């Protein structure tokens, strides 16, 4: 439900910009995937949108600078799942996912029936129903990752920032998660920015890719235009061949030399 615009955004830490001059316009309900090799600056760009990393240039949400929003406004508008989340180990899956509802509660208010219903639905869709009462510390890596995403999706923010959301998930759970996010953007107009190392999944789900290398944007466009074997060789030092899936999307396959 949000339109995001980045105007010449550079972002980094302690005065050192590690990603530079990113310009993009994401209409409501669109999905942008940021791709690029390790250390390219992908997570830093997401962190700049959340306000965790410093930035120059303009980041506009529905036309208003995101930096002018209060913490509460931002928590309602932007859902963020970090690449390596720190979770309160003792909380149960349900209590943790309910934290996603906090921005919607009044001061001192407790979660109501509708909050529990939202959380229940998200947990079911992420195949966590059987784990609702389990403390987070007892979960497997993939289960914990799904719990983190459940909290973010329960937030029902208009803009979702997902840093490597499929890390640690098997192919079936990765697919269900991305399908769920896809459904949200199509049904509710949720706008999505994600980093994804799996280029085939990025091509299947995102409308647009931004390829970043050493902090510079080196390609922007629809997946079929950005994902060429030459480009992947140049920027990832990888040998790949690009196949075409039955639906026409590119499939990036590593090839041994
Ligand atoms: N908190 C920080 N302080 C200083 N430098 C940082 C910090 N976090 C990341 N960096 C540096 O910024 C650069 C970009 O890091 P970033 O995490 O954005 O890369 P990435 O593209 O997400 O990488 P990966 O694919 O490995 O997750 C790297 O050189 C990294 O070492």
Automatic annotation (TrEMBL):
Gene3D superfamilies recorded: P-loop containing nucleotide triphosphate hydrolases
Pfam families the record matches: ABC_tran
SMART domains: AAA
Keywords: ATP-binding, Nucleotide-binding, Translocase, Transport
Gene Ontology molecular function, alphabetical: ATP binding
UniProt cross-references to SUPFAM superfamilies, sorted A to Z: P-loop containing nucleoside triphosphate hydrolases
Residues in ABC transporter domain copies: 4-239
InterPro entries: AAA+_ATPase (IPR003593), ABC_transporter-like_ATP-bd (IPR003439), ABC_transporter-like_CS (IPR017871), P-loop_NTPase (IPR027417)
Xref: PROSITE patterns: ABC_TRANSPORTER_1 (PS00211), ABC_TRANSPORTER_2 (PS50893)
Keyword Translocase included in the entry's annotation: yes
Official protein name in the record: ABC transporter ATP-binding protein
């Amino acid at each position: 439900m949000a339109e995001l615009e980045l105007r010449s955004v550079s972002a980094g830490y302690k005065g050192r910009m590690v990603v530079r001059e990113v310009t993009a316009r994401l209409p409501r309900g669109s999905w942008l995937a940021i791709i690029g090799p390790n250390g390219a600056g992908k997570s830093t760009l997401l962190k700049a949108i959340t306000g965790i990393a410093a930035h120059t240039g303009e980041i506009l949400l529905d036309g208003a600078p995101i930096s002018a929003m209060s913490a509460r406004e931002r928590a309602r508008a932007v859902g963020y799942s970090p690449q390596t989340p720190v979770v309160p180990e003792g909380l149960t899956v349900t209590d943790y996912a309910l934290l996603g509802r906090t921005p919607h509660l009044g001061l001192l208010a407790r979660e109501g029936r509708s909050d529990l219903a939202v959380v229940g639905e998200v947990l079911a869709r992420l195949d966590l129903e059987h784990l609702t009462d389990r403390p987070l510390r007892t979960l497997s890596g993939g289960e914990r990752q799904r719990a983190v995403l459940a909290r973010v999706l329960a937030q029902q923010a208009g803009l979702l920032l997902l840093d490597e959301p499929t890390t640690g998930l098997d192919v079936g759970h990765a697919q269900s998660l991305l399908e769920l996010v896809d459904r949200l953007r199509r049904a509710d107009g949720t706008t999505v920015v994600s980093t994804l190392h799996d280029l085939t999944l990025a091509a299947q789900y995102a409308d647009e890719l931004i390829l970043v290398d050493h902090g510079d944007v080196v390609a922007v466009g629809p997946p079929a235009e950005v994902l060429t074997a030459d480009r992947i060789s140049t920027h990832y030092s990888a040998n790949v061949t690009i196949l075409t899936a039955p639906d026409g999307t590119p499939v990036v396959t590593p090839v041994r030399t």
